[in-house]
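re: ur question from earlier - yeah i can do the single chain one, its not a big deal. heres the input i used so u can compare w yours
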Amino acid sequence: MDRQWHPRHWLNAVTSGRTTRWRAVGTVSAIAGIVASAAVAIAASAVPAAAGPTAPTALSAVTAVSCASATRCWAGAMDAKGSVIIATVDGGAAWRVEYATARYDIAALDCTSAAHCLAIGYLAEGSSAAFLETTDGGTVWSVHAAPRSLALAGALSCANGSDCWAVGLADNRVDAAVARTTDGGRVWTPESIPALVTAMSSPFGISCASAADCLVTGDAALTTTNGGKTWTKHAAAGEVPLGPVTCPSTRDCYAVFNVTSAVPSNEQTYLYTSTNGGVNWKDVLPNPRHVAGLGAISCPSTSTCVAVGYGYTPRGNGTDTLYGLSELTSTSGRHWAENTATKAQALFADSCVVKTRDCIAGGETGAGAVILKSVNDGVTWTSEPLPRA
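and the output i got, formated as tokens:
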């Protein structure tokens, strides 16, 4: 499953006439002093599908995607009034709004079957996290409280339909906090982990290849092989933090990380692989040309992965052209092919289906949200119609 973190707090930098918008937990950390530290307990409740605004509004960005199969996918998006969860049952040809809320921002999704999907979000004022769950394919969504230790939502990973893990900022707005459920998402308990922080330009990541094996990323990597009873901390390669991560097996893991800058030539993007479950890491995308950031990665197999983000074309008048892009490997990270997605200015999330070449990616254009589909592992992308919230 795919585990990305897409909070509403974006890092904005205006450089040479272009605006760079990228996800950044550092932005969340920077406003810690003005956000109340007391977590708000959220009472569990059932919410009818598509509850929300009566007047349709356009979606501004798609920030999370998870596909349970080649036909059944969910996505989290933003609009002028809050957030929505949209779904497709035909592989992206048509999407419908299943849940709309002005209270929560959807940070991540992980959908393990056509019936069960789990989302993590946080209150708009940034005071607490919450989990949204459907067990009937999206007809009804229930809201479940997160532990008070998980103050801001982050990334989500389900090893199966019952064992799921989440990571985000602790109530001190500095360290990572991890929570776990063993009942599919109704009851969550805090996990005790070694201290872990992250960089301004990247969020924490989490990926659980099994109920026993989980990896948490930040300024280092935390691994457990016994379901969280004990954790081991491993240094990141070259002291560069790790961000969004996915492990298609208990040994094979892929992670991305971005360094943003006011000077485009100083922006850096990293793509790391591990072949021993997160103990050691290797940078496998050195010096990517005109790649401004990679924000998500999905691996339908141990050898095939598709990372998405955005790039830029420098212009002589100082205004750069932004475009979505994907990086594809089918050689376990040894070689990567860059493909452009010109129908998007940036891609923030993707989900590629196991045993197929189908991928769904979400992002934004200059006019609003966009969802793209690929049937060849991200080599080419076509846009799909979006509903109005």
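The radius of gyration is 19 Å. not sure if urs matches, ping me
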